[in-house]
Each structure stands twice: as structure tokens, then as C-alpha cells.
Amino acid sequence: MGYPDSFEGFMITSQENWSDFSRKEIKPKPFGDYDIDIRIQACGVCGSDVHTITGGWGEASLPLCVGHEIVGEAIKVGPKVQSVKKGDRVGVGAQIWACLECKVCKSGSENYCPHQVDTYNAPYPDGTISQGGYSSHIRAHEYFTFKIPDNIETELAAPMLCAGLTCYSPLVRAGAGPGKKIAILGIGGLGHFGLMWSNALGAETYAISHSPNKRDDALKLGAKEFISTQDKDWAKPWAFTFDFILNTADMTHEFNLSEYMSTLAVNGTFHNVGLPDQPLPSMMAQDFAPNGSKIGGSHIGCRPEALAMLKLASEKNIKSWVETIDVSEKGCKEAVERVKKNDVHYRFTLVNYDKAFPNRG
User: Fold this and answer.
1) What confidence tier does 2 reach under pLDDT thresholds 50, 70, 90?
2) Is the dihedral of CA 122, 125, 129, 130 positive or negative?
3) What does the pLDDT look like over 307-359, one tens digit per residue?
4) Does residue 300 sit in helix, strand or coil?
5) Backbone angle region of 340, left / alpha / beta, with phi > 0 → left and psi within -120 to 50 → alpha
6) What residues contact 80, with CB distance under 8 A and at least 6 apart?
7) pTM for the full model?
8) Are residues 242 and 181 in contact, defined by beta-carbon separation less than 8 angstroms?
């Protein structure tokens, strides 16, 4: 059939064989007045993709095309779209639709809309299941489509759209900036953004990691000091220190959380953006009492935050640390298997879409 009636994508058909991708036709939702069709040029490979296809976050709608760090060219623009024109280089992150009418959306927090549609593996109101960016095209609502600044390379912009925003939003909402002491826990695909954003926002930034070999990277990314949790009694010198800990780690279920909480300043926050497959460790209510600390989490960010993040990256010349892989059945398989093993420094971006989809319109 072909574009615009159908797209092509590399999809899984089984969560048991989660890294086996095959090329299949995708039927997009009907084109709406506020929609934009994007010819994809790059897509980041997110930990969310792996959690989804492996079944770590539950049963998925199959067949499924994942990928929600998408950059490409706007090739069709709905009649009511105002912020994007045909030919613009644009990006789409982990959310592709919200009602934009409820009190949550109208408060500027559409990323918490109870009716939201994730970029893949989620039903639209008409029942169409959203499909992601390991594909030839994507159809996105204008509000969740962002123009990419000219000086950010396509393959570097892509991971900012989920991993970058996931770290940027809670840092900004916590008031990260001069006078604040911020710790980034976990130096990986998320954490490397946390360090760069916190430093760029002007906060005194620290890295906490169980991997001493990441010390040099952490300092290059903007950390003032590197704290290794491998050291005996590592937390004791840092008691009552941090205003905010951004936890980007994927293994929180194995943490002694009260040890980490002890490093928070009075009324400090331990904030989770790494989302493991397993439940958090049990805690006693009194674990929060010694410093009046609290624990929380968040989901990506809103449109104004996404635009502000891209502006900051452009102005401060912030660059994602990326390895590229050609998009294909083999490339998708390699990427997700290596992300599963944490064998990436620090994000993958799938590229060379024109080679994979040479006659896509």
C-alpha cells in the first residue's frame, strides 16, 4: 500500500523472542487537522524499549514497533498546525497525544494527562495502537512535535527527546541552579544527561555511582566530585548534603535506600526517573524522619520544558554521548541486546533510515 496509507517498521511479534525484529506494515491512525507526518531520519534506543519488549513492564500489544526518541523531516502538515511547516526538522519523544482539555493538561502538565497516548504500545481514542520510531514514518500531534535547533546534530538530538527530557524536567521543577547541591545517581544513558543539565543550570553537581571506572566520564560531564558507593561507609561523609538526588539507576530494588536518603539535606528529595522491572525496597516510615526527606518520581516532561531543554542544549553546546547503529533487523537486535547488557556509552541512535526505507515517500 505504502505512504500515506501505511508505514513500514521493524517490529517484534513475541516478547519471548524480544530481540527478533522483522519488517512489517504499520497502519497509522487517521490524519487529523493538528497532525504532522514525519519521515524519520534517526531514533534513539531507550531503556523503555527494552523494558517493553522483554515484558518487564507487562504485556505488550503485538506486533509492536518501539522507539520514542525520533528526529526527522515534516513531510505533511495538518491545516490547523501553526508551529511546524513542511520541511522542518522536528522531534518526537515518549508522548504523542493528550486530550489538552482536562485540568491536568491546562495546568501545563500534559505529560500526566489521564488520557495520554504514549508514542508506542498505547491505544488512541479510536482504538489504533500507537507504533514507534524503528519505522519509516510517524504521525504525531503538533503539541508533541518539537523543532530541533540547527546546531544540534540529528543523532545527538534524538536521545534528548526522552532520556534528556526525563532528567531535565525534574531538575527544573526542583529549582536546580546556583546555590543548590544536586546529586545524580547512576551514570548511564539517563545519568549522563542529568549531569550535563544540572551543571548547565548552574547547580553544584555531584555524581554517585557503583562503578568507579566512570569517575573520569562523570567529571567530564560536569560533576564537581565523584562518589563511589563501593567505598565502605560511603554515605557518612555526605550526610545532610544534597538538596535533590536524581536517581537514574535501573537497579534501585537492590539499594539500601535509607543509606542514600541519609545524604539528603533537611527536606531533601530522592527522585526516581530510573524505572526498574522490580518493586522498590521496603522502607519504614521512620526512615524519612531523621532529615524530613521525601521520595518521588516523574514521567518525561511537558512541551515548554522540552523546548527549553533544546534551547539550553543549543546555547550551551551540550552534546549527547552517542553510538550509532544502522536501522535494520540486525541493527535493532544488536541495539536492544546491548542496552539490556548496559553495553553502550551512553546512548544508541539508529541511523541511515534512507538506506533501510529507500522508497518511502
Assistant:
1) confident
2) negative
3) 999 999 999 999 999 999 999 999 999 999 999 999 999 999 999 999 999 98
4) coil
5) alpha
6) 33, 34, 142
7) 0.97
8) yes
pLDDT of residue 136: 98
**How large is the average pLDDT for residues 189-204?**
98
Q: Nearest 10 degrees: CA dihedral of 254, 166, 236, 285?
A: -70
Rounded CA gap, 313 and 53, in Å? Answer: 30
C-alpha cell belonging to residue 102: 482536562
3-class secondary structure, 262: coil
Cβ neighbours, 10 Å, residue 106: 12
Cβ atoms within 10 Å of 283's Cβ, excluding its own: 12
Helix (H) or strand (E) holding 356: helix 353-356
Q: In sequence order, which residues have a C-beta less than 8 Å from that of residue 84 and are 6 or more positions away?
A: 36, 74, 77, 90, 142, 145, 147
From residue 228, how far is each of 89, 207, 210, 232 by CA, in Å? Answer: 41, 8, 6, 9
pLDDT classification of 79: cutoffs 50, 70, 90: very high
| Strand residues in 98-187 grouped as ranges (E) | 117-118, 137-141, 145-147, 181-185
Burial class (CB in 10 A: 0-12, 13-18, 19+), 83: middle
3-class secondary-structure state, position 229? coil
Whole-number Å distance between alpha carbons of 204 and 181 = 5
Three-point CA angle 69, 312, 314, nearest 5°? 75
Residue with cell 527494552: 50
